[in-house]
């Protein structure tokens, strides 16, 4: 998806596509359509007053557009977990929500420090959260697994001392 | 079972005036970890927790929470209560532990939410 970024650093990547969604996801990237609505939000590092607002606003917008309530919850949970990840683990970043007529394509990009082993980070229960983050009830080691569980497609690109890019697609 | 029944069973305190206690509660979930709670995406649920920060209220923006029971005598700060009030989310607090509260409600017929 972000070829230039892959070339610039020695990135590792992780792909998940829900069974039977391969073709739909490929079509989406091949078509290169313009989104109907784009929401962009800064996520400061370690600011848990702001983290979560983007997903909450996105859910409200999609609700007005008539998206099914269970799909809304999946979008909200995946987006929220990703926002929390940016706030808890990075030096800050942003969330870009691209709304299309039949899907949502969310991008989370941060300013590092990156994930050294994405496969390990995907393991339920594995967490590198610090004490502050744990005190707030985070750090269960279920963030990325929860994102995957609720997504139709998930793409993570990262490396140690590099930015992380998390892309999520959920069809309506 | 309604929230009013739950307040009685858990000898709980209602944290703000005007909360809708007549809501029917079909099921419940109990945890102190936010990602665990976010597993409840399938149906509206009552949450029992010891977490009292603002992120617990924000969870109600993501999943459908019918109300929150704070256990072990914990109570959130006023700004957190205000956030819940804005959302029409009832809050109650009990001195009972998470285990005891869950046991009492389960025995009274309240099932676990589907995850």
From TrEMBL, chain B:
It comes from Cloacimonas acidaminovorans (strain Evry). InterPro entries: DRTGG, Ser_kin/Pase_Hpr-like_N_sf. Pfam families: DRTGG. Gene3D superfamilies: HprK N-terminal domain-like. Residues 5-100 form the DRTGG domain. Homohexamer. This is DRTGG domain-containing protein. It comes from the Bacteria.
């Amino acid at each position: 998806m972000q070829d230039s970024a892959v070339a610039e650093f020695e990135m590792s990547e992780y792909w998940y596509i829900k069974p039977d969604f391969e073709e739909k996801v490929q079509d989406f990237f091949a078509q290169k359509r313009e989104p109907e609505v784009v929401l962009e939000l800064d996520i400061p590092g370690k600011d848990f007053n702001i983290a979560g607002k983007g997903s909450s606003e996105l859910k409200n917008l999609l609700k007005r557009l008539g998206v099914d309530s269970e799909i809304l919850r999946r979008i909200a949970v995946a987006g929220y977990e990703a926002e929390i990840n940016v706030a808890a683990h990075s030096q800050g970043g942003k969330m870009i929500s691209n709304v299309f007529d039949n899907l949502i394509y969310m991008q989370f990009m941060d300013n590092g420090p990156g994930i050294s082993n994405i496969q390990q980070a995907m393991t339920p229960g594995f967490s590198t959260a610090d004490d502050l983050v744990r005190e707030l009830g985070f750090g269960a080691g279920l963030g990325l697994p929860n994102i995957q569980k609720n997504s139709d497609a998930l793409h993570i690109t990262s490396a140690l001392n590099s930015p992380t890019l998390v892309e999520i697609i959920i069809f309506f | 079972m309604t929230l009013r029944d739950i307040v009685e069973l858990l000898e709980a305190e209602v944290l703000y005036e005007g909360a809708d206690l007549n809501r029917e509660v079909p099921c419940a979930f109990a945890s102190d970890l936010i990602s665990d709670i976010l597993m409840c995406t399938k149906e509206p649920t009552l949450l029992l927790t010891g977490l009292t920060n603002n992120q617990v209220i924000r969870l109600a923006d993501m999943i459908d929470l019918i109300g929150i029971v704070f256990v072990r005598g914990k109570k959130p700060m006023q700004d957190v209560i205000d956030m819940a009030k804005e959302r029409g989310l009832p809050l109650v607090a009990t001195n009972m532990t998470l285990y005891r509260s869950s046991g009492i409600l389960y025995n009274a017929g309240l099932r676990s939410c589907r995850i």
